[in-house]
Give the backbone structure.
Amino acid sequence: MKKNKVLLFYNPNAGNGLLKNNLDMIIEKFQKKRMFLIPIRADRRGILNEVLKEIDPTEFRKIIAAGGDGTINNLVNAMMSNNVNLPISIFPSGTANDFAYYFDIPHDIDNMVKIALEEHYTYADIGKVNDQYFINVSALGFLVDVSQKTDPNIKNTLGVVSYYLKGVTEIPNIRPIPVKITSDEYTAEEKIYFMLVMNGRSAGGFKRIAPKAEINDGLLDVMLFREMPIREFAPLLFNVMTGQHPENKNVIFFQTKRLLVESDQKVGTDVDGEKGPEFPLDIQVIPTQFKINTRMNNMEGSKW
């Protein structure tokens, strides 16, 4: 039987309502291609598990995730929990769209739909922290606290600017975090302000936060931002904006397949913009787990 069904999970609260306002037009375009779109309003985390438990994956061509990184994260976690391994198409319409940015997915609805109607794919790794999966980044420390303190309504209105504004107000309260890092490539005890474990290249509006990262290289890019004098923040920020921070003296950078992070303090953790697990953190990469719908000229891997 030909796979002519497509699941569309959309976050009605993401971004500016782009998907909701164009839903009928999207359904029409798929029907003209003899594909039948089944929209699911993903306004709570549990709905994804409920739907994927009930479907027969052999009847579906792909799954579309419409929203930001958090929406894609919710979908990937539900797919892994239910052993569903269908291709994923992305309609970036959230506050943070770093995963879509890696694949150069456009933000206008016509070109999003055009890519989803075609059959060009690239492989993508995913990360895992304890029992949670992530597609783009796992983080801990100061900036995580900033994100979790930022009003969701302000995030939707101002986007990444809201994080910067909140971050400025929190700098006087910044405190170093003692952590122990264990991996084959690097093992040490450090005092840090922030830590990033990247699968993609961008995070929080910084487009080159992991300039060496490849989405399908089977490695995670790890950056530890060490305790430093406040006066050294500005030069480091400039380095981050230009992608030169891995060489900064206050940054420890390495690539790995797996690492363990421990701390005796209560520290905020983040997984693709969502609240992360408690310590200790066992972080690993799962290579080439999914296929992502991309433009034809961005295809890195065989066709599905």
Summary: Confidence is low (pLDDT under 50) at residues 154-166, 300-304. The CA atoms of residues 50 and 78 lie 9 Å apart. The first helix runs from residue 18 to 32. The chain has two domains: 5-118, 133-287.
